[in-house]
Amino acid sequence: MAEKNALLERYLSCHVCSETFRDPVSLSCSHKFCSSCLQQFWEQAKNKNCPICKRKSSKDYPGVDYALKELADWFAGRQQETEERERKMELVCKHQEEPKLFCEDEDRAVCPVCEFSLHHTHKVVPVEQAVSDLKEQLKSDLKSLQDKRDKYKQVEKTYNDMIQHSKKQLLSTEQQIRAEFNKIQQFLKEEEESRLAALREEEEQKGKTISREMKRIEEQISSLSDSICAVEEELHKHNVPFLSSYKATQTRARAQSSLSDPQLLSGALIDVAKHLGNLSFRVWKNMKDKVHFSPVILDPNTASGWLYLSDDLTSVRRGDTKQQLPDNTERNTEYSTVLGSESFSSGKHSWEVEVGDHPDWNVGLVKESVDRKGKCLASPKYGIWCLMYHSGKYTDGSGETVTVKKSLQRIRVQLDYDRGEVSFYDPEDMTHIYTYRETFTEKLFPYFSVGESGHAKTTEIKMCPTEISL
Length: 470
Prior knowledge:
Main location: cytoplasm
Largest sheet: 7 strands, antiparallel
Number of strands: 17
Strand content: 15-25%
Structural class: alpha+beta
Protein name: Nuclear factor 7, brain-like
Distance between the termini: 94 Å
Domain B box-type: 87-127
Domain B30.2/SPRY: 276-466
Radius of gyration: 48 Å
Pfam family, one: SPRY
Order of helices and strands: HEEHHEEEHHHHEEEEEEEEEEEE
């Protein structure tokens, strides 16, 4: 009987995993495998050959052999029953009684007759109590596993949200890039037409000038030709007629001979150097006057769902509805905050922020490791150095009132990383407002927060369009 079971087990075992078949499939060479084992083997081998005889399979996905599967499932069930029966037999001693006690020290059930004396120094409890306690432990383990799975599912959902959001970002960013280049192309087209028009206008004007000069020259040539003919006629006359008429002809000839020689006009040709000289530079200079540089660009991946950024990422306002955005690591979720896209870890930096009449804002810098998900005060203790405006008052990170001479429309933020200073000024007259002094040990990001009290307004806080150097 044992030999038959061994033979049957060998017949129903997969040659890859050595376990009883699960969804068995047969290849054309008659060798059989678990469907998943075969596919995994093929993926690793990067071919479709039989794992035993190496013959190439005629099918990429062989069908399940249901007759063999039924036999394998029956055999697996029979094995499980045998193992369960043997396990119960192990728990029953020679007294043919089910154990009623459990030794916690040895973590096994014991017979109260033949083994109890061996465990008098151990902690022994009734089996029912042990089973109850162990099931409670297992329930706790199950809860931990379920919690862990929920966390993985949440991360999986966040990744799915990020994938969908990235697709939206792709389409939106592509459209904005095309729009910006269309503006540049339109500007260049207009510049090209303007310069070609100036070239054609100069050619037309100088052509008219040359035409007028040529007409005057032609008139002079005609007059001189008439005088030459008159002189030649006089020279052919006889003595008496000649003496009576030569004087007038001579006077006319001498008058025309005394005229100044004709001179070519200066600058009659097109000024090619004016049109082509430094052409690219002059076009770039004109373009530079029309475009603006912002020293700080806002990072939309850090923005709270309540915040709406402008297309050029230089201004931010709080909206009436919260956007559905992925909860990526960089995003600020607890407060209506957005950070700059570039950080500072050395040197001097400065920029201006236009706050206008916005009723509630924070402007300054934060350290890279600032808590973006939990509650934290806007103070140096939490890695935030800012100037705040709320309820008509300006305050620092400790909540102390900051005195200003007049309502601020713009704020100049100035960072000297190496000296450990963050300063705020009124750029209109460079009046000093407040300075933090700190020893910085990590990267700092520009920081902007828009309070709830201003969400009903369309006012924005935005970067000023020009760069400020220290």
